[in-house]
Amino acid sequence: MSEVDVLALPRPVSALIVDDVVLRPFEPADIDALYAYRNDRELVSQLGGFSVGYSRSDLATWIERRRTVTDEILWAIADVSDDRCIGHVGLYRIDARVRRAEIAILIGERDRQGRGIGTAVTRAVVTYGFRELNLHRIALQVLATNDRAMRFYESLGFTREGSLRHHQFRDGAYVDMVLMSILDDEWATKFG
Predict the structure, then answer these.
(1) What's the pLDDT at 11?
(2) Taking the model in full, what pTM does it have?
(3) What is the pLDDT of residues 122-166, one digit of tens each?
(4) What would the pLDDT profile of 77-100 be if each residue is shown by its tens digit?
C-alpha cells in the first residue's frame, strides 16, 4: 500500500461490522446517548481526554466537526440490532508521513462493558489502521490510575512507553498519563 495522504482519508467513514456492533459515522440521533455517557462522572473519571459538562448543542457541534477534521477517523459504536449508539472509537492525530496515529475507545453503556465489545472493536480498528491506512505505529494514553485499561491494552500487545507526569486533574489531584503503543509488526505477530 502506498503512503496514506491525510486529505484522502475515507469520507464519509465506511461502516464496519464487528461482532454484535457496527462501527459507523455519527448521526444526529446519537446525541442523547452521547449526552448520557459523556456526562457520566463515574465513567468519565476513568478517562484521560474527557470532562463532564457537555450540552446537547456542544455534542451536535462535536459531531459536525468530526465530518471535516482531516487527521482523524471516528466511528460511533452502535448495537447492530437497533442501531443505538453505545460508545465511540477513533484513530486520531493521523500522521501519514510518519505513519502513526492514536486510538481512543469508550463503551458508554455500562451494561455493554466487560462483554468483549471493547476488545473486538479495538482489534478491528487497530487492524484497519495497520492494513488499510498503512500505519506503522498506533499509540494511546491512559490514566495511570486505570489499571484495568492498562491490563486490557497490554493483553492486545500494547507496550508501556513512559508517562506524562501530572497530566490530568481528577478528583482534586493531579494524575499521570501512561503512554502505550504497538507497532505494525508486533500486531502482525500477535494477530496475523
Answers:
(1) 56
(2) 0.88
(3) 999 999 999 999 999 999 999 999 999 999 999 999 999 999 999
(4) 999 999 999 999 999 999 999 999
* DSSP secondary structure of 88-99: EEEEEEEETTTT
Q: Determine the Cα angle at 130 with ends 127 and 134, to 5°.
A: 150
**Residues making up the chain, counted from first to last:** 192
Write down the domain spans for the chain: 6-138
Sheet bearing 159-170, strands edge to edge: 16-18, 21-24, 73-79, 85-95, 100-107, 137-143, 173-183, 159-170
* Peptide bond preceding 12 in cis form (omega within 30 of 0): yes
**Residue 169 CB-half CA count within 13 A:** 2
Does domain 6-138 match CATH 3.40.50.300?
no
Instruction: Confirm if 169 and 187 have CB atoms less than 8 A apart.
Output: no
127 neighbors 187 (Cβ within 8 angstroms): yes
